[in-house]
Structures are given as C-alpha cells and as structure tokens.
Design a protein that fits this description.
Distance between the termini: 35 Å
Number of strands: 3
Oligomer: single chain
Largest sheet: 3 strands, antiparallel
Strand content: 5-15%
Helix content: 55-70%
Strand order of the largest sheet: 1-2-3
Structural class: mainly alpha
Length: about 150
C-alpha cells in the first residue's frame, strides 16, 4: 500500500484530468455502472488511461509517467486504486484532485474505524486515522438519539 500512497501524488492530477478531459462517454459510462462494483468503474477509467484511443486527448509526459506508475503497482495496490477511483467517480461532486487523493488515502489506511458508545458519560470514539476524535458525555453532534 505504501507504493500507491507514494505514487498518488503523480496519479491524482492525471486521473482527475482524464475524468474531465476524456470524451464524456467514458466517464458517463463509468458513473452509470452502479450495478457493478466500484472496482469496475475505476478499472474502466484507468484502463482508458493505459490504452488510449485516437479520439482521446494527446498523451502528456505526466500521463505517460502515471501510466507507468499504475502498471508498476502491485496487484493489491492496483485494486485499491481502482476501487478509490470508482468510488470517486460514483460520488459525483466534488470531482477534483483533492477528493480523489482523500479517497486513495482512505483506501490505503487500514486503521480507520467508527465506533460509538452512547449514554451518560460514555466515551464516543469518532474517527481514528490520521486524525482522531473522542468525546465524553453527550453524543457527538448529529448523532443524538442513536
């Protein structure tokens, strides 16, 4: 997973530009495959990056570098990338590099959990990962009545 995180800085701008710049059909097709898994949606766009068609925008040096990095990813990282891209496409907006990078980071962090305990003076653990939240007493805002 560390290879994907390291490569994501180079991959994110290229993938987000591809989603914006490719013929709308590929992105539209990827978005409408809700019956299929997120992996297939991501695989459709990444496959298009790796196998360009004549109607696609010209390949830049950054595109070629990103394609080489994608091809070099271990299978488990490639699957994480395809899933993150598929979820990012399905989410609609915001469809920008920052949102994609966050999805990739979340896919790579195996230490994110959501656990809550409610009741008087009960600890409630929100999200543990790069950041952590812990509340004592009242439930976190927006979770009253759970």
């Amino acid at each position: 997973m560390s290879e994907l995180l390291a490569a994501s800085a180079a991959l994110v701008p290229v993938i987000s530009a591809a989603a914006a710049g490719f013929a709308g059909a590929v992105v539209e097709s990827a978005q409408t495959q809700f019956a299929d898994s997120a992996v297939l949606r991501g695989r459709a766009l990444i496959g298009r990056l790796l196998s360009r068609r004549p109607e696609d925008p010209p390949q830049t040096p950054e595109d070629a570098d990103a394609a080489a990095r994608i091809r070099a990813l271990p299978p488990e990282d490639r699957l994480l990338l395809e899933t993150a891209v598929g979820e990012w496409l399905a989410a609609g907006s915001p469809r920008d590099g920052a949102a994609l990078h966050e999805r990739i980071r979340d896919a790579c962090s195996g230490d994110t959990y959501h656990v809550a305990s409610h009741g008087p003076n009960s600890p409630a653990i929100g999200r543990i990962g790069e950041i952590g939240t812990m509340s004592f007493g009242a439930p976190p805002e927006g979770e009253a009545g759970r």
